[in-house]
Structure formats: C-alpha cells, structure tokens
Specification:
8-stranded antiparallel sheet, 331 residues, single chain, 27% strand, binds pyridoxal-5'-phosphate, alpha+beta, 8-stranded mixed sheet
Amino acid sequence: MAAFGTVFMPEMIISWFDGNGWSNAEVVSSDSLQLHPGAHVLHYSSTCFEGLKAFRHADGSIKIFRMDRNIERFAQSSELLALPELDKAATEKMILDIVAQFKNDVPEAPGSMYIRPTHIGTEPAIGKAASPSLTSCQYILLSPVGDYFSGGDTTLRLLLEENGARCAAHMGMIKSGGNYASAMRPIMKAKAELNADQVLFCPDGDVQETGAANFLLIDGNEVITKALDESFLHGVTRDSILTIARDLGMDVQERQLTVDELLERAAKPGCEAALSGTAAVLTSVGTLIHNGKEHTVGNGGVGQTTLKLRQALNDIQWGKAEDKFGWLTSI
Ligand code: PLP
C-alpha cells in the first residue's frame, strides 16, 4: 500500500485572494502550482492547512466528518497567521464540490478520502519579514487513504520530552507548517536513538501533544487530557472521542496532566494511553520512555477501552451507528 498522503486525485480546487476579494473557485490539475519564488509563504511560512476525511457508507453515500469544525480551525489559523480572511462559506462549497467531483474514488471502508485544504501567502515580497502577505491562495487536495491500522495490534513507543517544546507556545493552536518544521529534529533524534515512534512534548512536565496527534490517558473509567489553551492543537478527533466517552458515561477530565502523574498511573495494570488524530484515529501507546527508562503502559498491549472508543467513532463515520451528534455532511 502506498504511504499515507502520497497518492493524489488528479485535480484540485483553487481560489485566489488578490488583495480585495476571492476569485471564483476553479478545478485545475493538482500536479503543479505556479508561485513567484519570492512568495511570502516560501520565506516567512505564511501557511496553514487542515486535514479531514470523507467516508463511503454501505449504501454508497459519501459523508464528510465534522467539516464545520475543520473550517472553523482553518479560518482561525489563517487569522492568527495574519493571512487574508477566509470566506468560510466559499471554503465549504469548495470542499463539497471537489469531493463530489471525485466521489467515485472515495475508498470503501476501512479506507477514506483525506481532504487537505491549504492556505498560503502568495505576495511576491521578500522584504515582508514583519508584515503580512496581502494576497493569498487556498486550494483543496484529495488523497485516498487505506487502513492506517494494517499493523494490527502493535502499540506506539513515545519519548517524553520535558526540555523542549513542539513549537512556540503562542503558535500551538495554529495548524501551520512551521510548527511541524520546528518539531522535526527532536522527532528524528528520538526515532534514531531510541526507536521511538513519536515524541510526546511535555514542556516543564506538562503533558501536551505529539508531533501530529493529541494524547489521552485512559485509566479505568477516567479519560484525562490537557485542557484547551493556545499552546497545542485543538484536535477534532480529541473532541469527538471525549464527546463519545462522556456519552458512554466515562469521567472525562480536561485538565493539566503532569509527567509524574502520567508515569504513576501508567504503571497500573489496566491503564491505557492513546494518540488521537484524523490520520491516527485512536492509536494505543504501549511504552513511555523517560530519562532513559522505559515504562510500560498497563500491560503494554492495545487497550480495550481504546479499541471500544475507536470503534464507536469509526461506526459513526461509516454510518454503522446513528450520527447522534450531527457530525456528518452529505455530498
Ligand atoms: N496535534 C497536532 C500537532 C496535529 O498535527 C494533529 C493533526 O492531525 C492533531 C493534534 C489532531 O488533530 P485532529 O484530530 O483534528 O486531526
């Protein structure tokens, strides 16, 4: 199977902001994009993006999961990066139009169509290190993806990093390329030296998130995860899993979780930990590496509650359970 995100539909939908207004959206080839080499995004990282999915139900219908949330976050990222303001209704129409165009290519379960809206500053101006791009462009790529869990019941190994942060604290809730660039070296180092899958950033002992997913501790009936603040990404999957957990009667705690509490709880039999994200859905964490020591989470295997929550989310996404929270949009 091709690596996640390496196969693209041949066309994308694009709209340009010329300083005054957005152009009508156009469907164009997705294999290239013409930009001035001095474009603001290429020098000063005026870029943000989103990741959401469309699912094929057994009756053949296509549904997009929590599109409103992703568009809200996209607009918020654009605003916090001082990019031109998005027209949310136009973005929604672009998503619906391009997914409709390729609806026959949306894979069957357990696959899905990953949708990648992107917004970049296009102004050719290399002297604007401290001022925003007045022009921009947004486009939406589609990438069919398979089952992320073909690995079966393997669990992840995470390095707990207390001395570094994923990105600057005021940038965390922005889904912007620079944040991923900032986390790249620590993640590469953890992979090479410790065979870790990811780094769980815990600046000053505060358990935050990994390079591309949120972190949840599941201890019996309790689900514990960091309360929302501007330092990390407000995952749509995080919110969905917490909503499902509350609905199942679990005790959801959005609060500070320290490394000390995490390690103490993780050592208990039956304790579980997981990463949540659009790509990862909900993936079990089996090992935490901290100060050179390996700590097994619970029994180190895939957690039963993690599986149950993941299944409940997947069942809504694929129409096997009622869409009781109104999360699906029909194409
Ligand atoms: N945190 C980071 C840094 C991410 O890149 C992502 C993206 O997938 C998430 C968390 C999870 O967000 P979501 O559940 O909206 O995909």
